């Protein structure tokens, strides 16, 4: 019976992906750059509130792009001491009052990689580019070129899974446990794995710990709210929202569950080409999304009001 239910849920997700491939609604904001052709990850800046970071899917150099909520590209960041085998997602977090970006080189469609890698670097300072004027005294009408920055990775985590290679396209940072969460991309479910790490630890090797499994197929992105209460799993169709149940310690059963019990809490996704990235805004009232394709759209989906949850100890 459980298999039948999961299959029906998967069919529902597939039906929901009918919107995938359609053009975003009129009025959608687009990134004003042709450098981002396959936005696969999205993270909010921890330094500037209106700044977002993204990267291309596999095939690009190890680089990140900083843009604002109006679609203006402000910087291109070369990530040194990193390879780009199959970058699939990214996240941001603060550790010891220091802002970090983490990039997940975890794609493995062929289930052949002996290990996958998470790269971490301090988020650089990005100067906002002023809006070009139009000759009326408010600028000279010339657009300023985006900055070209570079930064070295501060940690590199080689990750292996308990039962062999798994395809994954989603990473999130759990501020309560100070761990990364990887969500697998599978046809009938998504397995959640916890990755313990040392942000100052340089090169590390970690065996992923399975902490839960949910009947959410084709997960392509993930994000955890700043307060640690909400976990969003993005798919080609709707997003799935999980809520924290308690502040359990590492090694215990998963602290995540749907607010609807056995029924998944799904949020409709805006029309988009092929959505593979997702992140919360600062106060977790909205989900921000991008889509593969050029020009890259920035999409917004509101989140229903959140019920009270246990307080972090």
Structure summarized in a few sentences:
By secondary structure, this protein is mainly beta.
Report on the structure:
It is a single chain. By secondary structure, the chain is mostly beta strands. It has one domain: 6 Propeller (Neuraminidase), CATH 2.120.10. It contains one helix and 23 strands. It has one helix at 2-16, and strands at residues 29-30, 39-44, 51-56, 63-68, 73-80, 87-95, 98-105, 116-122, 147-152, 155-160, 168-174, 179-184, 190-196, 202-207, 209-214, 219-224, 230-235, 239-244, 256-257, 266-267, 277-280, 286-290, 297-302. A five-stranded mixed beta sheet has the order 2-3-4-5-9, with no helix packed on it. It has a five-stranded mixed beta sheet with strand order 6-7-8-10-14, with no helix packed on it. Strands 16, 17, 18, 19 and 20 form a five-stranded antiparallel beta sheet that branches. Strand 11 and strand 12 (179-184) form a beta hairpin. The longest helix has 15 residues, at 2-16.
